[in-house]
């Protein structure tokens, strides 16, 4: 029984699992998005998010701690140079898991794991969501503009009607 067994072992030995998660974390940091199974993505999220939190403080100690997990110099420098300034205000939740369906070969649940602040499509969508408008018939400005545009036409019609009336009254009044 697996009472109180919290971590998913992913069917691997401890050393294999640590090496795999380190490689996946390095790939995620370097490429900002990776495609993997949902189980591995959930395990990776618990592995990489504390490292990203650690990168908020740029010190020699925190760099060495992160390097001891990732074992990739380029990934560590990318994390501290590019990723940490972007996520400085974010209190957590640096990764997003988007499910993409099942793999054809073995029907495994697949997903895309990405860093939240690096998806331009989602960022653009959130910027559009922040603007809130009330739904109503029509804004006041447009109504006034339509009234103004209709007014000259109505005035021209009224002038034509007045001139017609004047002509008819002139014709109907007998001259003395």
Write the layout of secondary structure elements.
Layout: H1 14-31, E1 33-37, H2 38-54, H3 60-70, H4 73-86, E2 95-102, E3 109-115, H5 120-130, H6 140-172
Antiparallel strand pairs: 1-3, 2-3
List keywords for this structure.
6 helices; mainly alpha; single chain; 3 strands; 50s Ribosomal Protein L17, Chain: A
Describe this structure in words.
Helix 1 (14-31) packs across helix 2 and helix 3 crosses helix 4 (73-86). The protein folds into two domains: 14-124, Ribosomal protein L17 (50s Ribosomal Protein L17, Chain: A); 133-176. The chain contains six helices and three strands, in the order H-E-H-H-H-E-E-H-H. The protein has a three-stranded antiparallel sheet. The protein is elongated. 59% of the residues lie in helices and 11% in strands. The model has no long low-confidence stretch (mean pLDDT 84). By secondary structure, the protein is mainly alpha-helical.
How would you briefly describe this protein structure?
The chain is built from six helices and three strands, in the order αβαααββαα. It has helices at residues 14-31, 38-54, 60-70, 73-86, 120-130, 140-172, and strands at residues 33-37, 95-102, 109-115. It has a three-stranded antiparallel sheet.
